[in-house]
Prior knowledge:
By secondary structure, this protein is an alpha+beta fold. Helix content is 47%, strand content 20%.
Amino acid sequence: xxxxxxxxxxxxxxxxxxxxxxxxxxxxxxxxxxxxxxxxxxxxxxxxxxxxxxxxxxxxxxxxxxxxxxxxxxxxxxxxxxxxxxxxxxxxxxxxxxxxxxxxxxxxxxxxxxxxxxxxxxxxxxxxxxxxxxxxxxxxxxxxxxxxxxxxxxxxxxxxxxxxxxxxxxxxxxxxxxxxxxxxxxxxxxxxxxxxxxxxxxxxxxxxxxxxxxxxxxxxxxxxxxxxxxxxxxxxxxxxxxxxxxxxxxx
Length: 251
């Protein structure tokens, strides 16, 4: 069953109001969803796709800001600030999502303080993730950073297998591919992961957690405000409405 936890956690009235504007969309790996410097016209709510917000420097280098899976929404920061995006949002693992026009979300936020508060809290979580990323890059060994990223990514995809290349991981972390190769070999030697061309599978999660830097445990202890608790029925209803063009219930 496809689901996005932020949508499923919304108040019923907010979800009813937004459902007609939601559109399912499938993304291939490598697609740029939002360009750096671009105004956000649509927000993306991943279900099985895995997205990464990455800062791209004029010299060609890049640095990961944070990752987004089924727990969240891409384009939220620039949307809330009403500013062009300061980073690129790209698909790192192919999958599906819902696309919502920014104008539709803005209208509903004006009517709903609850929705505005929910999205602001979710964006705080993204800021926290970015803050840990800065500290992590300065203080932690690359092997621990790779392990932490793999854990965060598979958490968001709710799967053990991540369809990314070692170059993808290097790009997201802002390190050399050879450094990722070394980390991957180390993790494989411990039995923590298996990998083939274009895919990395978590084989022993406990071992991977032991190898991860402290950032993973710290971020895991902070609840993502967009996560829904016991919202499987709401998610199923959402998918039915969107895919079958069912109008919202009248009030």
